[in-house]
Amino acid sequence: MLDDKVRAVLARLEAEDAKEREEGVSREQRARQVARTTGQFLFALVAPQWDCEVLEIGGSRGYSSIWLGAGVRYLGGRILSLEADPAKAEAWRRNITEAGLDDWAELVFIDAEKDDYERLFELARDQVEPGALFVADNVLSHQDTLGAYSQARQADPKLESFTLPLDRGLELSVVLSERG
Q1: What's the average model confidence in pLDDT over 69-78?
Q2: Given CA atoms 128, 100, 91, 39 in this order, what sign does their dihedral have?
């Protein structure tokens, strides 16, 4: 749930992100977190699910992880977040702890950028069951890089996929059946 600890950390991270953008901090050094409305959407997706398991690729400093972690603790579940930048991973750990979500979230390092979405989807696709949901961020703001990703998901008859024009654009892909 969104208790005072969670709300305080989210508010601090939002303020830090706004300040970094205002100061012109490079994209690579910024938190690169989702917009607040996307965080709220992610929370709404996971909160009503029993024993929800979430894999997040690109945890950054933990903003979306906090939304997801707060959601999965309602009815049980866990979030595994992957991050490549050691400094961001350390900030992720501090923020998750400050929000009181240590029992619901953990972090592993991985190297992932937008050019990796297709490869990472293919790696994860065979590991999930029908009913699993993939959510890819930035599909509208980075359409030159991720347009093919969205098109491939929407053309796959074993998925039901659509682009949600929320913030930077989310591609939601529900697995309908096993591959093969």
Answers
A1: 93
A2: positive
